[in-house]
């Protein structure tokens, strides 16, 4: 699988925004075609697409290319987890603002909590995907913050990652819908 990720990254490296956008749009067209095929076979397939299952935004231009694709795809609900929210390094949040079919989760842990708090001050629409030792620790760490928090049911072993009914993320629906912040636990409890 690492070969696939490396090949995909190399395909994007060095391209301008328009060229990256064309490759990403082609991928989303393929996703739609896969959904259409499944529906012709009788399945109900939500058009929910997770950006990156491993990796992150590597440049502002890459994030802007994704924003272009998301704007052009109002029929698809996108969500993404990112650690690229620090203005002193790479902050993609300005490029991802005002996209009603995108939910952005800041990947937060105790080490980057101050930067995440500042990012959320600047971009209150961004959600958190918070990693703590346990779900109780995560709830306690975030208790003073407004909003709803949900423990990830797949991470807590209450929902299998993949079944014949689909992925845990689609069946749960919290992350694609953006209903609130999500807590993940290292100890899975």
UniProtKB/TrEMBL annotation:
One Pfam short name: GP88
Gene product domain: residues covered: 8-175
Protein name from the UniProt record: Gene product 88 domain-containing protein
Species in which this protein is naturally found: Geodermatophilus telluris
Lineage: Bacteria, Bacillati, Actinomycetota, Actinomycetes, Geodermatophilales
